[in-house]
Q: What sequence folds into this?
């Protein structure tokens, strides 16, 4: 249905379109993460040419209300979730503090051999057998992180089965004899995602992700798991508190 603009008020038509779409967002008619109608459909709605429409969309993107992805469409930006990195970083606790329902989806389990860098982090020999878990972290059913967990064998031979049963890496580790663990180190890097990462995070490869590479240790100081995780850059805000006890 065509939405009439006021053409003789002195307010540019692109500005009226931007205001109308901003109202749709603020009043809940367009939810966070929603895909907008196509450029053609929106141009018809406001009875304007595409140049005018694009000016309005660019303005909303500059304000951080919209995200324009080439080849995929235009989306309402989501409020970033605060994710604290500390001595004891736990995915579920990080999200539940903010009233967000957290979940882990186990995508795959496979055995492999440790590369030189992962072997060093896990304090095992290069080419030693490891188990590798591919997981997807979701917040209110929206994907926010894609991760690969590497753990030494035979110590963690049952980790895949326990994670599938319990749905929590912390609980799965406890079932494998690790009642608690802490971060030894976290390395941060911003980069473009791979096609697989972008697929699971439901984003384009043009949008950057924030990579965290972490080594975790048990109470006796023995490494438990190496985590390489990528977070959707516009859905998560990292807060680094080196001395904190983040559950």
A:
């Amino acid at each position: 249905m065509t939405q009439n603009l006021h053409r003789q008020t002195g307010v540019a038509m692109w500005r009226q379109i931007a205001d109308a779409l901003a109202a749709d967002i603020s009043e809940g008619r367009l939810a966070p993460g929603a895909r907008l109608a196509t450029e053609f459909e929106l141009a018809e709605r406001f009875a304007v040419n595409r140049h005018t429409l694009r000016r309005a969309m660019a303005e909303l993107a500059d304000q951080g209300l919209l995200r324009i992805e080439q080849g995929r469409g235009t989306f309402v930006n989501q409020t970033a979730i605060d994710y604290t990195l500390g001595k004891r970083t736990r995915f579920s606790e990080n999200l539940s503090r903010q009233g967000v329902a957290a979940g882990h989806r186990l995508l795959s389990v496979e055995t492999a051999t440790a590369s030189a860098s992962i072997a060093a982090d896990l304090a095992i020999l290069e080419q030693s057998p490891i188990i590798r878990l591919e997981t997807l972290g979701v917040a209110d059913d929206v994907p926010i992180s894609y991760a690969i967990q590497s753990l030494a064998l035979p110590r963690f031979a049952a980790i895949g089965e326990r994670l599938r049963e319990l749905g929590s890496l912390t609980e799965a580790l406890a079932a494998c004899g690790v009642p608690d663990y802490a971060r030894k180190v976290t390395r941060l890097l911003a980069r473009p995602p791979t096609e697989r990462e972008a697929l699971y995070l439901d984003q384009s490869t043009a949008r950057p992700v924030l990579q965290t590479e972490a080594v975790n240790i048990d109470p006796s100081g023995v490494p438990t798991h190496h985590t390489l995780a990528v977070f959707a850059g516009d859905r998560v805000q990292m807060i680094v508190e080196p001395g904190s006890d983040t559950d």
Observations:
- Residues 13-26 form the longest helix (14 residues).
- The chain has a mean pLDDT of 87.
- The longest strand covers residues 102-113.
